[in-house]
What does this fold into?
Amino acid sequence: MRQARRWRGFAFGGLLLGLLGSVAFAADAPAPLVYSTISVSEGKATARDKRGQTRQLGLDPELQAGLQTILARARPIAGAAVVIEVSTGQVLAAAEIGTSRPGELLFEPRAPAASVFKLVTTAALYERGGVRPQDRVCTKGGLRDIGEEHLSPASGPGVVCAPFFHALGVSRNAAYAQLSTERLMRDDLLAVAETFGFNQRLPLDVEGQVGSLSVPFNDLEFARTAAGFENSKLSVFGAARLALTVAALGTPPAMHFEAHTQSSERPRVISETTARRLRKSMEITVHSGTARDAFRDESGRNYLGYLQVAGKTGTLKPAKNGPTSNWFVGFAPSEKPTVVVSVLLQISDLWHQKAPTAARDVLRLHFARHGARGVTSPLK
It folds into this structure.
């Protein structure tokens, strides 16, 4: 019965919008910027657009340089990171390392979304599945993979029962497998994902795509997709878009490199209630969940002082001999967010640093420069 429920209709909207996003820009519309032409001189950032005109950018040159240094210190095979102002969508910094061409990870959905996709599934469960934050979910296992045994409520020795709102922060795979199979149809997950921007172009003045997603019909494959194990990819800006949506309480501004080009259009992606629920669960990630160790020193002190951070981690190695994609996306301060950070590191088995640590240092750099109490720069 569950499998049959997923045959209801097929969504072409994202595919159509994706195709439309690839056509030439209209003559009366602003031409997209060419990322490879960005330059910083005498404290000012500029870039050329596709018509050859020079545009002034809103990048923060000091933060931009610091972001590049933090990525280099992480020593990944490849990586990318962005910092975005929540209130306006202004790109404050964007950097990459180890890519074969400019913008490859920043603007193209090359890396598996991994558990970052759980942000989408959580929203779908709240808005289309009738799940409540306090609903208890009983699971056993599923730490590193999902099997048929995780599609139904668990019982017996070793069972863990906890409220659903806690599942995101600890990335409880089996909870997502179970609830998505019970409560969602294929169309539900696809529709919510496309509302977030999957299979569509980036709302940005540089051409790119938020992410790619295909949703299977088979129950087990559907559950694995909902938990982030397969079938979804994100660009670094696409991941930032997910966090920006939550930080902006469901109505994110369009992102932009160019200075003074804030858009008045802020379409609603998710309800404010859903965004607030996601924010609370993302706080768990940093306070006591999968990113806790990165944000606290050996004595338990918060590297960000009195600032609370909300975030989501993700880790997936899709090929045995390939790199592991390691994510952190989030925002701070969590109650009244001012900046979003998105970091992707593609690392080997002998990694030096992971994305939550790099993201922590990006936030430290930003807030130390703005005089946040108890926050020191990682570059001093």
Observations:
- Residues 105 and 299 are 35 Å apart (CA to CA).
- The chain has twelve helices and 13 strands.
- The chain has one domain: 2-369.
